[in-house]
Amino acid sequence: MRDHKKMYGIYLRASFLIAIGLIIAFLLTLPYAEPEPYKLKQEVVGIINEISMEIDKQIEPIDNTVRPKPQPAVIAGQNPDDGATTIDPTDYGENIIPTAPIGPDIEVIPYYKVEVKPQPISMPSPVYPPLAAKAGIEGKVVVKMLVDIDGGVIAVEVIKSSGNPMLDDSAIAAAKQSKFTPAKQRDKLVRVWVVRQIEFKLADG
Fold first, then answer.
1. Phi, psi of 171, rounded to the nearest 5 degrees
2. Which domains occur in the chain, in start order?
3. CA 89/CA 172 separation, integer angstroms
4. Cα–Cα distance between 175 and 193 in angstroms, integer?
5. For 101-116, what is each residue's pLDDT tens digit?
6. What distance in Å separates the CA atoms of residue 180 and residue 87, rounded to the nearest whole number?
7. Cystine design at 128: which of 49, 73, 114, 156 (Cβ 3.0–4.6 Å)?
8. Contact status, residue 162 vs residue 140, Cβ threshold 8 Å
């Protein structure tokens, strides 16, 4: 006759091993799913540019019906000329920006007083900073540009920050490359401030 008290430990260990074996057998019957390597979600980046000019709202109403078409983003490393957009002369909505004379010889005229207003010729697309795009950072920057007598931009100031210095710097860099037709007052070339709004927005999906 067996001593069940002595066999208890053996029975316990055997039961444990059998249970482990059943668990292993069950796991082996499950279908094998090969893990896929992590892939960074690629966002299609788009930048929307809007042009507006200074104007006295009491003298002339704002025209918000015409806006430049959205421009594709220029990814870092691409030729900046690829993102440049040539814009045909047209009328744009306008906002008042106070100005002050700069330089002793060339006068800065408020936009609403200028007889021959500057028209955008080339508006290069800003570069969406890769770190900002990867982090999902979006924002809108409003800058004012001082258009010189040759149509080039000689000064840029941020009048409404996006809240992110990377986006602000990119907007400033693009604004400096903008080109306009010269402004004239009484057949004299003058300088004038114009406003450009740039929105950095990641495409959905």
1. -65, -40
2. 45-202 (3.30.2420.10)
3. 23
4. 12
5. 444 568 888 888 899 9
6. 10
7. 73
8. yes
CA angle 143, 148, 85 (to 5 degrees): 60
Structure tokens at 171: 């907007």
Alpha-carbon Rg for the chain, nearest whole angstrom, is 32
Q: Residue 136: name the closest of 59, 195, 189, 201 by CA.
A: 201
pTM for the whole thing?
0.56
Q: Six-digit token pair at 22?
A: 């059943």
Tens digit of pLDDT for each residue in 56-104?
333 333 333 223 334 444 545 445 454 444 333 333 333 333 334 444 5
User: 30-60 burial, b if ≥16 CB within 10 A, otherwise e?
Assistant: eeeeeeeeeeeeeeebbbbbbbbbbbeeeee
CB atoms < 10 A from the CB of 161, how many?
15
Of 146, 150, 66, 68, the C-alpha closest to 101 is 146
> Token digits for 132?
């900002």
Quote the tokens at residue 201: 């927005």
Strands of the chain (E only): list them.
45-53, 71-72, 120-122, 139-147, 153-160, 179-180, 183-185, 188-190, 192-202
One-letter amino acid for residue 98 of the chain: P
